[in-house]
Please model this.
Amino acid sequence: MPCETPIIFLIFCRPDLTSQVFETIRQVQPKKLLVVADGPRNESEASLCQQARAVTEAVEWDCEVLRNYADKNLGCRQRVSSGLDWAFTQVEEAIILEDDCLPDISFFHFCEELLEHYRYDQRVMMISGDNFCLGKKRTDYSYYFSRYINIWGWATWKRAWQHYDIEMYLWDEIKQGNWLQNIFSAPRTVDYWHDIFQRVYDGDINTWDYQWVFACWIQSGYSVVPTNNLVSNIGFGIEATHTTRKQSKSSAIPTESIQFPLVHPPFVIQDAIVDRFLQREFFDLRFLPWLRRQLKRSYKQLLHKIQLFSKS
Model:
């Protein structure tokens, strides 16, 4: 059936991948399509960017198409964030796909149903199409609730996106108040995310998605995660901006259609067991790097105390 929910399609300079993802969009024939494109970084990319944009112009069904093209390269951080800011001035909710995120057809209707189901539930910040449990299943429901924010095929509402802040102005307050300890109990996990958020805040990581994680967490928001993986990231490799390691366990995870009608859980509770598995498998600092960080931090604190003592 046609997809009634608007689809935001984020593209850049990979026409081959863009074609594969656009073909799945064509199959569900959305009534509204919003295309966000970054500009080329150099002359050699100019033709590829144009080819990728041309792919999305082959709309042969009844569809309102809105386009937001950058004339010059803005980079991942500015282009995705500004593109989504623009898109949510046009629509109240949307399904979001990047040019390297290949969905199963059932992904669209999964998102569409749950966008309606949790439209006014402030506890739910987004619907994800990704499941990184590596084949492990813990529930007979069609989905569960997670703290983790996976954006390789997802959906959200304008009411949730309004909390997004690319500059993370609240990070200093969260950091000084040790608020991450209220989210995570394990010191290594706290250190991992403290380091990530600090590097994003300082501009050392050129991305947009950790800011979305931060926005969801400080609102105590959950992500809906399907029990089957519905989207496969097919873009790992040297041409990717961030996902350059093809051997990553996250690369090209197979998709599996989800069954309808969906079986909704009668509660909204984080599955902490699954989240601890994800933290351990994908995010935790290993012990020795964590220990080095702890010793380095203790040394800096000791040095600071010595300096204060010598001045007094």
Confidence is low (pLDDT under 50) at residues 242-246, 286-291.
